[in-house]
Design brief:
Shape: elongated
CATH topology of the largest domain: Aminopeptidase
Number of strands: 17
Distance between the termini: 58 Å
CATH class of the largest domain: Alpha Beta
Number of helices: 13
CATH architecture of the largest domain: 3-Layer(aba) Sandwich
Bound molecules: zinc ion
Number of domains: 2
Structural class: alpha/beta
Oligomer: single chain
Largest sheet: 9 strands, mixed
Radius of gyration: 29 Å
Strand content: 15-25%
Amino acid sequence: MNRTVALALTALTTTAYAIAPGPALLSVNQAKKVAKSVISADQCRNILTFIASDALLGRDTPSPGLDAAAEFLAYNLRKWGAKPGGDNGSFFQKVTLYRSQLDTNSAVIVGGTTTLRYGSQFVVSRGQGDLNGPAVFIDNEVGTTDVKGKIVFMAESVSLAEDRVAVDKGAVAVIRDQGATGADWTNFARSFNRPVGGFGLTAPNATAQAPRILMESTAFASIKSSPMVRLLVERKTETATTQNVVAIVEGSDPKLKSEYVALGAHLDHIGVRSTGDGDRIFNGADDDGSGTTAILAIAEAALTAKERAKRSLLFVWHFGEEKGLWGSSYFTNNPTVPITSIVAQLNIDMCGRSRMAGDTNPRNATLTDPNSIYVIGTTMMSTRLGELVHKTNADFLKVNYDPRYDDPKDPNRFYYRSDHYNYAQKGIPICFWFDGVHEDYHGVGDEVSKIDFNKIEKTAQTVFVTAVAVANEPVRPPVDKPLRP
Ligand SMILES: [Zn+2]
């Protein structure tokens, strides 16, 4: 190499280094100091008092309350200098939800003259379509009757299972005598009247299901022998938007920073109840306001430290956990970083309640005491991750890690019941922190006033240091055991 060029290259390299020096390494010992100085019960109280406030109306998915909680997380993450990990340089991974809405002008038309109306004469239990075709009446069982391409009238006496038999044999719709008239029918129709379904993650398939209609008995009798029937059941699809909140704290190792230790909680809860006296808001202070708070406190600690762990930290607050682990399902199927770059997922779902001395309520019998918490997942998938989780705790706050549910065969199935399981299914080893079921679990009494903030503090401090220990591992924790032993 020519000497002049070599000198110029040296100068360039030196200059580049001077402009952008990487952050120094955050050791596990430094992480302990940061944890103790940044993460506190007071800080957690401040966060949770907003997250679980009545103003957010129980953070249902989707809802403006859940959106407000997401904006609150983003506001803080932006202020502390986190790197957005969502869509288009934002902290949000936006997701469309769908629900089906029945057109209440739906009708059953016979011979162009008799028109039966939704609600007063029939209700729709499933399906949709504009069908005009031959009809056949069944009064015992489908048997050998040719129902292919036909609209099938089912007498009340016919077993409900025959509805499925008819559709399997090619029937395009089933109209069933509900066996009710007058006030009985009115009461049934009112209780059944669900023109609007619940939201879901997938768009309803308009043609997937043959319509099934439940009909008032007099109306049914008047048309059951008609040879031709037109069925007009229309639905429209309504959409709503919700989001995961995603943030990154970049690692300091030039190579390992492209790998991530994921930390998660669920931001949503179950909203408000429509009936009942008094308090109707499910605040979800423990479930999972406490985990949401702990993960946000960990983000503040990670961003306050001047140093950085080797690997990056990936923070994900999930929507729709209460609906069926929706947000984690969506994130793991549509990850904003390569899914194979996530080396572990640490999930906190409930870490804010403690069984106090003298509490004899049987509904709190399995709630952990102030210095205990259940850890789940340390005996599964990765021996090394399990070792790190236990060793970090033993060398730090020595929380009593109760292993009772740390077993895939546990009859409560807690291993399968929160967001971490969607990560585990993608081959990512997990650990799950959980305080136990209690008297206010999924009740309106899950409120801030009952929270043990020292427990959130201890859990957040411990999980932060654990995340740094995993992030600093020379080799990512190997998966050496199957997902389901
Ligand atoms: Zn939960």
